Amino acid sequence: MSYTIHPQSWIRILTVFLCTLIGISCQSKKQSELLWEANFHLIGSQSSPRAVDLTQDGVLDIVIGAGRNEFQETEQGVLAINGQDGSLIWSHAAADQIYGSATFYDITDDGIPDVFIGGRSCQFRAIDGKTGKLIWKYENTDINHPILRYARFNFNHSVQIADQNGNGYPELLLSNGGNYEALPYMTENRFPAVIMVLDSKTGEVLAADTVPDGQESYMTPLAFQQPWESNPTVVFGTGGETLDGSLFLVSLSDLMENNLSNAERIATDTGHGFIAPPAIADVNQDGFMDIIAISHGSRVFAIDGKSRETIWTQHISHTECSNSFAVGYFTDDDVPDFFTFVSEGIWPENTGSIQIMLDGKNGDISYKSSIGCTGFSSPVAIDLNRDGREEVILSVNEFDCNRFIGDQSAFAITNRLIGIDFNTQETFTLDQTEGMKNIFSTPWLGDMDGDGFLDLVHCQYFSHSDLLSFLGMRMKRIDLPIRIRHKPVWGSYMGKKGDGIFRPNL
User: Fold this and answer.
1) What three-state secondary structure class fits 60?
2) H or E element, residue 10
3) What is the mean pLDDT of residues 410-416?
4) Is 442 in contact with 380 (CB distance < 8 Å)?
């Protein structure tokens, strides 16, 4: 039996539930409110919303990568959406899908953050945050360069690192790799990925080298700094859905010397690589940041950031994973825990979805459920009821899970945004819409207008045929009757700052 909840009806239901969940009076804000929804025709997104104030009105705006179907040009490759009313501030054209999520920094010195974002067909660019006009774009002009000749494929997300060339602006760490012409399980037409550093001010390549195992990479590299160390560590991954891959650590100083040969292999998987960005958190409470990563083969590794030894491992058998973790205090101790969901079966014939929460202390599976079908978005985490333990929020799709992912015939689908309270084991629905899907986009949580209450932004995509096609998209801002004093502990894709680092007290 299927049914549709009218938007105002589910908002009232949600309000009653949240007030009950929190266990306090919601009289200061009586109900949840759908403040706006923005609809766009013929496009979709594999990006996730990121928030920044572009209009300087004190309300955070939303930037997201977008596009038509693969290899199609669009005038709406990057969207900047007004957080106040959902109107379009500007759009930026692209030659192919912009699936990366945005990084922000003001390089035009006008007081408004500018946008760094990339995606397919070797697209990576800096965009003026005020006007949406191009500042610079990456161009691979030296096809004979021993390293950069390989940097002609897809760009993933970028993360900021400290200024390396003394011009006063941070640099951008990112990877380039993948080749759409390469067939699954085949090694032909596959080329080594390139880990690189770009000058955020000019787009100049400051450093680059191919990965030491010669494999592809679809993973965003991360950088973190241990206490009392001056030289940051870079973590990057290799491999894909059907080929071996590994996780590596290297010093940023080695990368800046265009040399990844000293990179240390800290984890590996056979028949699968590392696609989802890892999480950086201290799980053994020694004051050093550790690396928690999941391979596409659903093997989880917690690596000691000081000794580089394995702290614990876990394997969710007969599943695959392209999803990042949400990090939070989900159990009753002060060690961060990790939640994600994995897909049953083998790509591209994945079937159901399994949600798992891993105890950060020992890697044990402390929660497991099976809700919905395959999806590649990632979860977020926030303490909704102020009990000291985070709940998670994730997007799930409900349809015939045995459906082949490339089947283009019409089918029924419902997208739900759900929450899970690990303390009570209760699952609750925040939003649901029939005829909509969300395969890739992670929700955003935070206080957009500074009123002390939680806002939720999430994306849905029109669907009547295959799961991966783009037919139009919808973004919603929902104002919730939940007071917050601090940013959610893991309120967006790759955490508070979009760099994969767990910062509980920021």
Assistant:
1) coil
2) helix 7-22
3) 93
4) yes
Q: Secondary structure of 188-202 in the HEC alphabet?
A: CCCCCCEEEEEECCC
Question: Reduced to 3 states, what is the DSSP secondary structure of residue 52?
Answer: strand
Q: Under DSSP, is residue 177 helix (H, G, I), strand (E, B) or coil?
A: strand
Q: Give CA–CA dist 113/90, Å, rounded.
A: 14
- By the 8 A CB rule, do 350 and 400 touch? no
Partnered with residue 493 across adjacent β-strands are: none
Please check the confidence at residue 406 and state whether its pLDDT lies above 90: no
For the cut 90, the answer to whether the pLDDT of residue 304 exceeds it is yes
Tokens at residue 380, please? 């977020």
Tell me how far apart the alpha carbons of residues 167 and 50 are, in angstroms, rounded to a whole number.
26
pLDDT classification of 9: cutoffs 50, 70, 90: very low
Show Cβ contacts of residue 307 under 8 Å, excluding neighbours closer than 6 positions.
none
3-state secondary structure of 396: strand
Three-state secondary-structure class, residue 325: coil
Report how far residue 93's alpha carbon sits from residue 91's, in angstroms, rounded to the nearest whole number.
7
For 200-321, strand residue ranges (E) read 205-210, 222-224, 233-237, 245-251, 264-269, 279-281, 290-294, 299-303, 310-315, 319-320
Among 274, 158, 290, residue whose Cα is nearest residue 220: 158
Which residues make beta-bridge pairs with 474?
39, 460
pLDDT in tens, 172-182: 999 999 988 88
CA nearest 121: which of 90, 78, 142, 151?
Answer: 151
- What is the distance between the terminal CA atoms of the chain, rounded to a whole angstrom? 45
Conformation bin of residue 435: beta by default, left when phi > 0, alpha when psi is -120 to 50: left
Helix (H), strand (E) at residue 17: helix 7-22
Q: How many residues does the chain have?
A: 506
Which secondary structure element, helix H or strand E, spans residue 254, and what is its range?
A: helix 252-256
Question: DSSP letter at 324?
Answer: P
Would you state the pLDDT for residue 11?
56
Amino acid in position 300: V
Q: Residue 148 has which token pair? A: 């950069």
Beta strands in 120-215 (DSSP E): 123-127, 134-137, 154-155, 159-161, 171-177, 194-199, 205-210
Percent of the chain whose pLDDT exceeds 70:
94
